[in-house]
């Protein structure tokens, strides 16, 4: 929201108003409620994180009927007539995660890919990250016998799910690397800390406080990040340039794919 | 220079003039020639990369006599009364390089630290990087028997030096990781390519074209970078704020320590 506010300060003199609507990443219903409210307000343009595939498509169809331009942030849907996408290349960030774990884990060890998500097929950017991850190994290590194991865990807060993960790790001690495909890597870090499993390399996404804390403890090794304030800022400015200045805008605007470790986190801006 | 030009555009309306002086990183004499010219111009403030320790100190003494404030970029000298330092924490970037090689190279392999520099003791930031590198291992791997080997090569362009490196690598096949402490890692990459040594992990500094090319080929694995245009911009603005706006400025302003690989280089801005 810092980037959105910064953009608003620059453009509010043009009579632009911004209203913000938040949804829960764990609940597509909250997404639906907010998109209904947005449509009632009949905005001239929309910036949208198309987090849930199905619900986003319904919303987009309605925007298109009404000729309301929309900019995607965070996650990209290729099949839609968006004005622009601003965010990370999810496939490529998956490839990077694979390289870091490939380098960090002995050649004969197994690697676990963990999705903390309900209805994974509804979450395009996580699917893209997984695809990029597998692509790295099939392209760079075609001869390797390394085992890659993928698991989906709908609710990492439940005791049942946590026990599933614990059993998985205890019965497969050859798993020495874990990639969590979203920002919820701290749930896994909690389990690793509890089990005192210190020899597993862990990589996740996003610089949220819980993750930073496990990064500094050395339980999470790498976090892949982007500069979220840049995303919000660029999305609003893109919409403004299209609607008010009638300028042509870039249809894809990829943000950086940053690697954060314990050693450089304090210098990251 | 992009950052310097951007800063100049913002402040030239205040009647500020900027003159730029370049020196060769391989030749302290060119540094001396330029600092003499600068002193003849008697500027109101100086932005300076104190690349050569002795020559920088002489120059600084003269600036201090004349009460001319100066801002360091790129490399820091702790003992001087600078107005501000803007750049990377060299010690910490050395620590990060050590972590990346520690993770990428088998526990029993040796690691070579290569300085491509004449008179290393005159080059503070390379010394700091090496210190940070060793500190990582002594702190995190106190029990390890891993061998760290440091070599100084005055002139990586000479055939003699290149033969020294070739012999070193061929007689020490247990060296599976190499850290080049500055931007000249491409000289090493050339040798590795020639000898077809594909199983050595290599880390260096700075996104110059020669390095990017070897990064994309997979011969250099990691480059540690900063955003140089940010440095130039911030240095000029800092001096401006001090001299013209009479504002208090921060005495240390560390830039980010970015990790660039083949996988994220195209998204780095």
Automatic annotation (TrEMBL), chains A, B:
Domain of life: Bacteria
Subcellular location: Cell envelope
Chief site of localization: other
Matching SUPFAM superfamilies: Periplasmic binding protein-like I (SSF53822)
All copies of domain Periplasmic binding protein, residue ranges: 3-244
Keywords: Signal
GO molecular function annotation: carbohydrate binding
InterPro entries cross-referenced by the UniProt entry: Peripla_BP_I, SBP_2_dom
GO cellular component: cell envelope
PANTHER family linked: D-ALLOSE-BINDING PERIPLASMIC PROTEIN-RELATED
Family the UniProt entry places it in: Belongs to the bacterial solute-binding protein 2 family.
Full protein name: Transcriptional regulator
Organism whose genome encodes this protein: Aquipluma nitroreducens
């Amino acid at each position: 929201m810092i980037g959105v506010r910064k953009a608003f300060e620059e453009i509010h003199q043009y009579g632009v108003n911004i209203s913000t609507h938040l949804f829960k990443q764990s609940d597509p219903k909250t997404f639906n409620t907010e998109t209904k409210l947005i449509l009632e307000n009949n905005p001239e343009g929309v910036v949208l994180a198309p987090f849930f595939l199905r619900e986003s498509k319904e919303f987009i169809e309605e925007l298109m009927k009404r000729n309301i331009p929309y900019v995607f942030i965070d996650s990209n849907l290729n099949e839609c007539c968006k004005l622009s996408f601003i965010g990370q290349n999810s496939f490529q960030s998956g490839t990077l995660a694979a390289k870091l774990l490939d380098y960090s884990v002995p050649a004969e060890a197994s690697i676990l890919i963990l999705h903390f998500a309900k209805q994974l097929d509804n979450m395009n950017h996580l699917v893209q990250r997984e695809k990029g991850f597998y692509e790295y190994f099939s392209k760079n290590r075609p001869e390797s016998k390394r085992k890659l194991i993928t698991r989906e865990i709908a609710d990492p807060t439940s005791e049942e799910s946590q026990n599933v993960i614990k059993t998985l790790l205890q019965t497969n001690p050859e798993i020495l690397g874990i990639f969590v495909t979203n920002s919820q890597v701290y749930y896994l870090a909690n389990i690793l800390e509890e089990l005192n499993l210190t020899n597993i390399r862990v990589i996740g996404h996003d610089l949220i406080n819980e993750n930073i804390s496990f990064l500094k403890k050395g339980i999470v090794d790498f976090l892949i990040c982007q500069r979220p304030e840049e995303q919000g800022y660029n999305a609003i400015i893109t919409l403004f340039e299209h609607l008010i200045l009638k300028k042509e805008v870039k249809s894809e605007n990829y943000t950086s794919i940053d690697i954060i470790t314990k050693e450089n986190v304090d210098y990251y801006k």
